[in-house]
């Protein structure tokens, strides 16, 4: 945890806060901080600053904190991602959040097993926790927007144009396609399919919707490897 991320419900009054969950345990047991210590903190969907520990009764920790600085700039990137395997979903969402991606769409694909859509990992509270862990890792406070879309065709026909408007739409897909561009500073929408890529039909639908098809080397990568590698190549990271 590189940033203590406070939530609005933690507020006691104007600049007094109280926490009693894993964050308190981390401060107490991992960081070893005691009353009077200071640490970097932020308020969810607000600014960052410095918090001071006022007290610890062994159950809850009381702090003083007032945000004074803006959070790090976000990436001008919308990520459309075929729903990954449940056991990798946590890591992928944490990585996306820590990279500064602020809109993520988990989309169905023919290659996505139907059981993936019924995993407990898709419960809203668990998804939110994964995104928050990414914010704590990177020192950010702005929670990404996360959309779940379990029907490919209706999403492409009814919603995609609004999401991609004003951005460069890039489709990551294996094959003899032009290489991905490098260090873009404009708004980008990036679509990453399942391992092995989208089906021909899905790729065709995305291309018809305005996506440019690009390859990323000759190797077939796992999604959890492809995501940070692609973002690092495509975007000029702030």
Characteristic key phrases:
Ribosomal Protein L25, Chain P, 6-stranded parallel beta sheet, 2 domains, alpha/beta, 5-stranded mixed beta sheet, 29% helix, 7 helices, 238 residues, single chain, Alpha/beta knot
Folded structure, characterized:
The protein has 238 residues and is of the alpha/beta class. The protein has helices at residues 22-30, 86-98, 124-138, 152-158, 160-164, 200-208, 223-234; strands at residues 4-6, 16-19, 38-43, 48-56, 61-65, 77-82, 103-107, 145-149, 168-172, 188-192, 212-214. The protein has a 6-stranded parallel beta sheet, with helices on both faces. The chain is elongated, with a radius of gyration of 20 Å.
Helix and strand layout, with pairings?
Layout: E1 4-6, E2 16-19, H1 22-30, E3 38-43, E4 48-56, E5 61-65, E6 77-82, H2 86-98, E7 103-107, H3 124-138, E8 145-149, H4 152-158, H5 160-164, E9 168-172, E10 188-192, H6 200-208, E11 212-214, H7 223-234
Parallel strand pairs: 1-3, 6-7, 6-10, 7-8, 9-10, 9-11
Antiparallel strand pairs: 2-5, 3-4, 4-5
Short description:
The protein is α/β, with parallel strands linked by helices and 238 residues long. It is 29% helix and 24% strand.
Q: Terminal Cα separation, in Å?
A: 21 Å
Backbone CA Rg:
20 Å
CATH topology of the largest domain: Alpha/beta knot
Percent of residues in β-strands: 15-25%
* Main sheet attributes: strand count, strand direction, barrel closure: 6 strands, parallel
Shape: elongated
Low-confidence spans: pLDDT under 50, at least 5 residues? none
Our count of helices gives 7
The helix/strand class is: alpha/beta
């Amino acid at each position: 945890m590189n940033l203590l991320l406070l939530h609005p419900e933690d507020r006691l009054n104007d600049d007094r806060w109280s926490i009693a969950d894993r964050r308190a345990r981390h401060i107490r047991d991992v960081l070893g901080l005691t009353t009077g210590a200071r640490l970097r903190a932020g308020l969810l969907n607000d600014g960052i600053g410095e918090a001071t520990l006022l007290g610890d009764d062994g159950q809850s920790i009381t702090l003083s904190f007032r945000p004074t600085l803006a959070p790090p700039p976000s990436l001008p990137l919308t990520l459309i991602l075929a729903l990954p395997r449940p056991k990798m979903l946590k890591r992928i969402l944490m990585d996306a959040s820590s990279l500064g991606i602020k809109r993520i769409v988990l989309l169905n694909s023919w290659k996505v097993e139907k059981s993936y859509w019924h995993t407990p990992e898709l419960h809203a509270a668990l998804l939110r926790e994964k995104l928050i862990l990414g914010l704590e890792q990177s020192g950010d406070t702005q929670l990404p927007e996360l959309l779940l879309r379990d029907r490919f065709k209706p999403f492409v026909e009814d919603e995609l144009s609004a999401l991609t408007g004003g951005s460069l739409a890039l489709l990551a897909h294996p094959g003899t396609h032009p290489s991905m561009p490098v260090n873009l500073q404009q708004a980008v929408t990036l679509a990453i399919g399942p391992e092995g890529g989208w089906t021909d039909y899905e790729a065709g639908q995305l291309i018809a919707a305005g996506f440019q098809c690009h390859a990323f080397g000759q190797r077939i990568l796992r999604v959890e490897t492809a995501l940070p590698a692609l973002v690092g190549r495509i975007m000029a990271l702030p």
